């Protein structure tokens, strides 16, 4: 059998799934059930009930990944981000997580996460050029 490798510049969801399915099966066989759960803490505009920000997280393998955090610029500096992060930590503790991890850019909020007790564990320089992608973790006690 001759293997063919083909470039797909716009892969379909079906093609992605064909790659992902055997990978997930391998992960399950080696790492066990990841207990994958997602949640969101939604910031809603009181007048329109529209979601204007919040936090989106995923729990797997007893670690919480904070995937998205967004607070409208006009509301920054009022402790809303800190409240979201503390609420996420409470969720992580209730779900018996070992810790929390996240990624951010050097032009976003690394200082914010450091003030909350997160430590940098990896950095990808020049992503985007002139900046860095940074990875933080906090082990829960």
TrEMBL record:
Keywords: Transferase. Pfam families: Acetyltransf_1. InterPro entries: Acyl_CoA_acyltransferase (IPR016181), GNAT_dom (IPR000182). Residues 1-139 form the N-acetyltransferase domain. One of its GO terms (molecular function) is acyltransferase activity, transferring groups other than amino-acyl groups. Transmembrane segments: none annotated. PROSITE patterns: GNAT (PS51186). This is GNAT family N-acetyltransferase.
